[in-house]
Structure formats: structure tokens, C-alpha cells
Amino acid sequence: MSIDDLRQSLIDTLDRLGVVDDPDIRQAFARVPRELFLPGVPAEVVFLNEAVPVKFGGARIMSSSSQPSMMAIMLGQLDVRPGHRVLEIGTGSGYNAALLDTLVGAEGRVVTIDIEPDLVAAAREHLARAGHRAVTVRCGDGALGYAEAAPYDRIIATAGVWDVYPALLDQLADGGRVLLPISVRGSQLSVAFERHGDHLRSVSVEQCGFMRLRGANAGPEHKIDIDPDRRVRLLVPDERPVDVGTVRRLLDAPPYDQPTGVSATLLDVHNGLDLWLSVHLANPVRLISAGSPEAVAAGPVPCMYEWKNPPWHERVTFAVTGGTDLAALARRPGEPLDLADPTVFELLVRAFGTPGAAHRHLLGAVHDWQAAGRPDVSGVSLRAYPAGERRRLAEGEFEVPKHHSVLALTWVPSAARSVAPAAPSGAGPG
Ligand code: SAH
Predict the structure, then answer these.
(1) Which residue's CA lies nearest to atom 12 of ligand 1?
(2) How far is the CA of 91 from the centre of ligand 1 (A)?
(3) 285 in ligand 1 pocket by Cβ < 6 Å?
(4) pTM, whole model, 2 decimals?
(5) 139 lines ligand 1 (CB under 6 A)
(6) Ligand 1 within 6 A of 141 CB?
């Protein structure tokens, strides 16, 4: 297949997934040559709907060109218009900056920042080769923004943030929009915020999974090596202490899988249960295992999400730690790994060692999610206040404290969201 055909096949995939409503975004994907941003990557891989790693640090991926469907969703959330001044945090390959540059047109302006000097140099070259010389590429900590070119009509982070950074708000123009993949107790949401008086309000929320921002403003979310031999790690979303010794010991205990009686697709878990558990349970963590397929399969981490990037496999599942026990979300082997697979499977709760409080809480929270009508991210509304401001929580609101901000999250009941069908004339309340 020619490059043009391959590029068209990517557009067809985006169309099939229904992630591009805006013809300008669709056209930007059709115009920008992704192959120039991923030199050395085989053309068949460049145009798959997959994230493509562009920098490694040991066994760790330091940068990747994001999955095109997620980029399309986020560009839609950002609502970029011709003439806009846009700041991007996380240049990576420069591909998204080129899409942004296409969307803002000759009257607009794009500034992009990355923390890695070699990526900045490479992105400058890629952008020049693709004809996007007007994009300003800077090296620095994106959490501080880039005041020299402020204000911005749109700010987008393409690395996961832990907080709403004050510098970004200072650099946001009146009426502007800021899009952040932000961690809500370990569950990552791509949130488009607009300013409303003293706070920000979400105008669009999607589930996402970006690599985290690094550097001095990365925040307290961290990974702990639990068992380096079996490559088991724990993602801890905040400062709360975790008893690593106990977790290590429990992972060696015989696992016991309890059926929950609740069935779901992988997308239901990804878009709904994940966030529900993150906000409702006291000590949410993620169990991660990465390595060869054999090592991952033989390890103690049950499969919820699994990514196969040969020769590397990675598994992640939601888990909760208690004083004396550990429980994780699990499913039976051989069930779908693809988020688009509509197969329904039964959720299990895996107890390590004797089931105790963590097991009970996780099981209870899965049942509560079912009883609440399986709410998902489409019903989520978020507000972000400056930290330290005293406010009363509204009924049903969850507070997620950060260092610079406090998030307030609510699920809008689906009845309030759906547009009520027009009442036949003469009927219903007048
Ligand atoms: N938009 C990119 C993909 C970004 S991947 C593309 O289209 O290819 C996330 C990027 O964030 C990585 O390149 C990483 O180096 C960068 N990053 C991590 N921490 C950062 C920080 N504090 N400031 C700016 N960039 C950062």
C-alpha cells in the first residue's frame, strides 16, 4: 500500500470509531504526514491506530506519539479554531503540534514544550520538514507554561497531570479553554475546563491513559517496585502510605477469585467502573506487571487491561489495600483485550490471602456501581477550585484534594443529561 493509502486507512479507522465529528480535524489528519514525525518506524506501523514509542529510558517509555483516536477525541474536546493561540505541553514527536498548527491556520500560533532536550531538537526538525516552521518549540517544564507567548486561547497537556497548575491558569486568555489529562485518584480523565468566576468547570470529560508528567511539578503519584524479579509494581495515586512489605507478602499468598455476579464489557470497566472504584474506595492503587508474555502470565497480577507490544507485555488492574489484605479486580483468562470488543464477561474480585476488609469493600463497590445504574464518564462533571478555599460540598459531590487545587466531582444522573423528548402538543406541563 502507498503512504497515501495507509494514511487514508487511518482516517477510515477514525471514522469507523466515530471519533471525528469535526471536518477540520478530519482534514488535519488527512494532511499532516505522520511518517515525517516517526522516522525509522515502518509505514504499516505509523498508520495503525496505536501509540508509537519515540523515546526509551532503560525499560521505560519516556515519550510516545499518542494513539490517533485519543488525539482526535482530545482535539474535539479542545475546540481549536482558526486564529487561536495554543499552548501544548508534551511535544514528543511534534505530530500533535502539527495538527494544532493546521487547525489554527496562518493567523494562529502554536507553542509546544517538552522537558527532554533531544525530543525538542527532533520535533523542530520534524515540524520544519512537514512545513510547520511557525510552531515554537521550547524545552522546559510544561507545568510552568510559557509566559513569553501568553495569553493562550487553548492550552492542552498531552502528558498526564496531577494538579491544575496556577501558571497555566495565569496564561489562559479570558474565555479560554484548558484540556488536562488529570489523575482522579489514579483514574485518568481528559477534562476540558472553562473558567467560571473563581473556579473552572468541565465542559467535556473523557477517560484516557497518558504517561505522567515528569519533573519538579509531577506531583505525588508514584510507582513502587513491589517485586523486581516478577516486575510487579504498584501505582499509588497520592501521598497515602502503603505497607509495601504486607503487599509483597500477600502477593505470594494463594489467590482466590470470587465471582461478583456483575458482567460488563471492557469499555464499561474502562469508562465507568474504574473511576467509580477510584473515588469510592479508601485506598485505590493499580497493580502493574510488565515484562515478557511468559513472566506476565505466570505472575500474580490478574488481567484487566493488557497491552501487547512485543516483546513487552503489560497488565494493569485496579486494586485496593487494607490493613491486612489486598484485593484486585480480575476476570477469567482468554477474555477480550480490545476496548472495542463488545463481549460481556463476569467481573471477579481476587483476594490475596484470607479475604478481609479490602476484599469486602471492593466487592461492595462493584455491586454499588451496578445498583447505581453503572454510571460512566459521560455523566461526570468536574469543578476545580484553588486550594485553600473553603466551600461546602454539594450533595453527592466527591472532593479530590490536590496541592494547588481541589477537584469536586459529581455524576450527573442520566435522566438529567438526556434531552427530554418533545412533549406532544397539549400534553405535559405547560
Ligand atoms: N504530543 C506528543 C506526545 C506526547 S507524550 C506527540 O504528538 O507526539 C508525552 C510527552 O510529555 C513526552 O514527550 C515527555 O517527554 C513530555 N513531558 C513529560 N514531562 C514533561 C514536563 N514536565 N513538561 C513538558 N513535557 C513533559
Answers:
(1) 63
(2) 5
(3) no
(4) 0.93
(5) no
(6) yes
Any ligand 1 atom below 6 A from CB of 89: yes
Phi, psi of 188 (to 5 degrees): -100, 125
Atom of ligand 1 nearest to the CA of 65: 8
Catalytic residues: 66
CA of 62 to the centre of ligand 1 (A): 8
pLDDT in tens, the chain (430 residues): 899 999 999 999 999 999 999 999 999 999 999 999 999 999 999 999 988 989 988 777 899 999 999 999 999 999 999 999 999 999 999 999 999 999 999 999 999 999 999 999 999 999 999 999 999 999 999 999 999 999 999 999 999 999 999 999 999 999 999 999 999 999 999 999 999 998 999 999 999 989 999 999 999 999 998 887 778 999 999 988 888 888 999 998 899 999 999 999 999 999 999 999 999 998 899 999 988 888 888 888 988 998 876 667 889 999 998 778 899 999 998 898 888 899 999 999 999 988 899 999 999 999 999 999 999 999 999 999 999 877 778 888 999 999 999 999 999 866 555 444 333 333 333 3
For residue 64, give the ligand 1 atom closest to its CA: 5
